[in-house]
Amino acid sequence: MRGKFVGGMHPSEFLDTFLGGDAFDNGSVPNSPWNDQVKNSFKAVNVGTTKMKGEKLITTPPTESVMGTRLADAIQQCIDTKNFEYVDTHTQCDVNKIPRAPDTGTDGTLYAVSSRDLRGDKPNSTFSECTTEIKRAETAHVFSDNTAQDFELLTQDSIETRGQFTAYAVPPLMFQFRTHFFTVFIRGDTARLIRWDRAGAIVTTAFCYSEEPYLADFYWRFTNATPQARGHDTTAQRLSTSDPMALETRKKLELKPNEPIYEIKVWNDVSTATEDKNTEKVDTSQTADQGRSYYGTDPIVNNAQSATGRATRIFKVWDPLEDKIVALKDCWRVDSSSILPEGQVYKQLQKAEVCNIPTCLRAGDVNPSCPYQRTQTQYPPSSTRTLRSHIHYRIVMKEVCRGNITEFKNTKELVSVIRDALIAHTEAYKKAGLLHRDVSAGNILITTDGKGLLSDWELSKAAAELAKARQHERTGTWQFMSAALLQQERPCHSIEDDLESFFHVFSWISLQYTKNHLSPVDLGEHLHDAYDKAVVDASRDLVYGGAAKLDKLKSRALRKTGFVDSAFRSLLLDWEDTCAARYDPDPNQDVIEEMRQLFSSLPPEAQNKALASGIEFQTQIKRDRLKSGQWFIDRCDEAMKSNDWPSLAEARFENSIITKDPASNVHVYPPTAPSTRGTKRTSGTSAEQLKSGSSTSGGKPKRRKVNPTVGNAQTTQRTRSSAFASQMERVEEQADV
Question: Which of 346, 428, 425, 457 is nearest to 636 (CA)?
Answer without folding.
Answer: 425
